[in-house]
Design brief:
six-stranded parallel beta sheet, binds nicotinamide-adenine-dinucleotide, 31% helix, 14% strand
Length: 509
Amino acid sequence: MKIAVLRERFAGENRVAATPETVGKLVALGAAVTVEAGAGAGSRITDADYAAAGASIMPAAEATLAGANIILSVRRPQAALVAGAASGALLIGALDPYGNEGELAALAQAGITAMSMEFMPRITRAQVMDILSSQANLAGYQSVIEAAAVFQRAFPMMMTAAGTVRPAKVFVMGAGVAGLQAIATAKRLGAVVSATDVRPAAKEQVESLGGKFIAVEDDEFKQAETAGGYAKQMSAEYQAKQAELTAQHIAKQDIVITTALIPGRPAPRLITRAMVESMAAGSVIVDLAAERGGNVELTQPDQVIEHNGVRIVGYTNVQGRIPTTASQLYARNLLAFVTTLIDAKAKTLAVNWDDELVKAVTLTRDGHVVHPHFAAAIPTGEPSLAPSDPTVPPKPSRRTIARKAQVPAMADTPKKAAPGVEQSVPASAGPQPTPAKRAATKKAAALINAAAAAKAAAPKPSAPLGSDQLAAAKTRTRRVINPAMLAPDATLGQPVRRPRKPAAPKDNT
Ligand code: NAD
């Protein structure tokens, strides 16, 4: 069993799909690991580090891939590059298939089994494999660091002999994984933080982090969440009301961080040119949705622009700007999934194609595009293996495909999830995993680190707050209650203290 780790070729991508830690664990599982020379350089990992962990360093992609059964990557490599791997080799990474259907077909024709980690269901046993959460968490953290770097003023309140410095006001739009981490990071730096979201569940999560929740809480708001926990597309009427409320608020903010996304759609436009112009010179906006079209009308992808003295930061790969930590968590996500594909006793590849995780992420297999979201759309010249599934959305029109080219691989469905289960792709109707597979998954979690054990104790995602938790939320020391943030790769399990009373400014908006 051979596992290959490629050097990333996507411009500006400094992350890598395996670290010495995960290489060592793959070797212990019986794999021969090859790493392309320089693969870890962008994440400060040397070839010698990989070699010490048991990998063979290969000078080029061809030698790295020769005979590989599994290829680990961050971005989707070109089909021509990976064609030298073993027939049926598993390509595991963030493959970004929407809008890239041609590349998907090319991978199928090259005999590659493409597995897209963005499609990992958000169920409890797969939390350790959730690359969207691990990377969004870091993007949220890094967004505050980027804001601080261009803000040119202090975040915390300071009472000095030379006078008092007022704290920065930070407004976070979208309180999902990235937004909650941004709130927590801005609080740690001493800012006065407020946040908004269209999901009612976000209110309590924002407040648990010491943020003030700002939203139009009408009937539509109360319904605005899918069974999977994602935001719904809001009506034009709601958006207008929300825009009016947030416009007044934004005008008083020093820093606005936008993270608002709706799965499978371009990012909602939340900040207009006029709103930017209402902000004081020296204010900063960081648009974390830049990769999906941006939440801000003026965002330029991968640029920091200035408009009327307001800086707008539009980096499209913010997690890639903290590559060492991002690689560490991403590599652990991949290791956890790969572990479920290996028979640890026989030390061989043993993919259970009936496993719901495998089914959810597999895009191509045996020369065909098999994922229900894509199989119908791609003319491979061969009959599709896709099952006739009533939950599969209809084939998108040409216009939809063009629009989706801006949208990363992610999908949600209004289909009702099982209680306590959140999902990002339609639940497959396939059989449940066998006890042996469950045991293998458990072992995967144990292999990662002690954090995985901490996650096991996390409350069920959709469980309502118990009275104990509510009571705890009222005490001075607060814990994050968002289940996503209790995942093993989250860093927010630590208590977050409120600012001392005398330091709190009178106007929190
Ligand atoms: P996301 O990246 O899809 O979106 C980011 C945030 O933007 C969301 O909170 C969304 O509600 C918000 N948003 C969308 N439109 C908006 C608008 N017009 N105005 C303001 N905000 C808007 O979200 P995510 O970070 O992937 O999290 C989505 C949900 O999934 C959350 O409830 C999260 O707790 C949950 N989750 C569950 C798991 C799990 O394993 N069970 C893991 C991660 C996240």
